[in-house]
Each structure stands twice: as C-alpha cells, then as structure tokens.
TrEMBL record:
This is Transglycosylase SLT domain-containing protein. Signal peptide: none annotated. Keywords: Membrane, Transmembrane, Transmembrane helix. The lineage of its organism: Bacteria, Bacillati, Bacillota, Bacilli, Bacillales. Residues 151-189 form the Transglycosylase SLT domain.
Length: 232
C-alpha cells in the first residue's frame, strides 16, 4: 500500500499567527468604519426627519419667548414688500408689546397698537394737531384713513386691503412698521439707524438688535419652514 502523502501547510503556524495579528487591527478598523457609517445614516439631520411643525418648535426653543406662529407669514409678507428683514419686525414686536400680549396696547406717552406708533407718526406730522411727542388730537376716522395718512405724510399702511389703516390691526401695524423702518434705512441695510429712528434710545436699540440677531440666525430656516407649511 502506498503511504499517503502528507501535505505541508503553505504557512507555518507561526507565520499564520503573525498574519492574523497583522490583519486583526485592519478588520477591527473596518468594523468600526461600517458601524459608524451605518449609525450616521440612521441619524439623518434633524430638520430632515422632523415635520415642519416640530422643526419650528426646535428652533423656537432657542428664543426667550416663542414667536407666535400666525405672525410669521405676516412678518414675511412685509419683508417681501418693504425689503426689511422679517426678523427685525419680530424683534421690534417682541420689545414693543411682547408680541401683543401686554394688557394694554397704549403706552404711558400715547404710543398705540401692536407696534406702538405715536398717532402723529402713524397719520403724519403735518396733521394740524401734531406737536411735542406726537400724541396729537386726531379723530379716529382720520387716524385710520389711508387718504388722510397720505395727505399728512404718515407711515400707516392698510396691510390687509380692507380700506382701513389701523394700528390695532395686526397686519396693518406690522406693514406700517416695515414701511417706517424701510424709509429710515433698514431696506438699505442701515438696521441700527432705522431702529434708533423708531425709538431714540440706545437701550432700546440694544434690546431690539439683540433679538434681531438671535432671530436672524434662523432667518432662512424659518422662512423655508413657513413656506413649506403654507404650500401644502
């Protein structure tokens, strides 16, 4: 009987062990790479996974007071018309009346409405009763009449197209604020100058700009979210 031929291993046991030890770190590295790649695919950027409503809520957590959602399209429509950042309008609204949550929308000096216009600024300083701080003695039918506002050089705007420019109507007030800020430089990028014209107080300017910069970090994201919600 022929003796079976014993096949010698291609690699000695010592060499095999060395190869295994050499390949082990590579195998571990590949495992870790695939694990983290898979994990990254599971953690899709949060704004892609969340609904627009939740996206908005996530952003609002960065603010000291949430911007009321129904106001966002109004700010943005005013931005489109007057080229004033909607975030600046929101900042003014936050500082002036805490987004209209104050018990009274009449200030001690006579500023009125959601965005706190002095009556003479709203209807125009050419009105015969306007002087001093601008409280005036303006009949309601003149204060809210677009024709009278045009006549006296005021900033009041009929934002909702109902034929009345009312500082107590949200759209009218926000559009009027945008109009005022635009005329005083905000549409040309002179934000600080425009804010100072709105209220001649360095402290006021500082507060408005602080909120403006905070909101402005999310200017485009929030605009995209609102657009997505309104086009559904």
């Amino acid at each position: 009987m022929e003796e079976s031929l014993k096949k010698e291993p291609l690699l000695s046991s010592t060499t095999q062990l060395r190869v295994i030890l050499l390949l082990l770190p590579i195998a571990l590295t590949m495992c870790m790479y695939f694990f983290f790649t898979w994990n990254e695919l599971q953690v899709v950027p949060i704004f892609e996974k969340l609904t627009p409503q939740k996206q908005l809520a996530e952003i609002q957590q960065h603010f000291d007071m949430a911007i009321p959602e129904p106001l966002l399209p109004i700010y943005m429509a005013a931005e489109e018309k007057y080229h004033v950042p909607w975030t600046l309008l929101a900042a003014h609204h936050r500082i002036e009346t805490r987004f209209s949550t104050l018990k009274s929308l009449i200030s001690p000096v006579g500023a009125t409405g959601h965005m706190q216009f002095m009556p003479c600024t709203f209807v125009g300083w050419q009105h015969p009763t306007c002087s001093g701080l601008g409280k005036g003695n303006i009949p309601q039918e003149e204060l809210t009449n677009p024709a009278a506002i045009k006549k006296y050089g005021g900033y009041g705007i009929d934002g909702n197209g109902d034929g009345v420019a009312d500082p107590y109507n949200m759209e009218d007030a926000i559009f009027s604020a945008a109009h005022y800020l635009a005329k005083n430089g905000a549409a040309d990028g002179k934000i600080e100058q425009a804010v100072f014209q709105y209220n001649h107080s360095d402290e006021y300017v500082e507060k408005v700009l602080e909120h403006f910069m905070m909101y402005n970090e999310y200017h485009d994201e929030m605009r995209a979210i609102v657009l997505a919600k309104t086009t559904k």
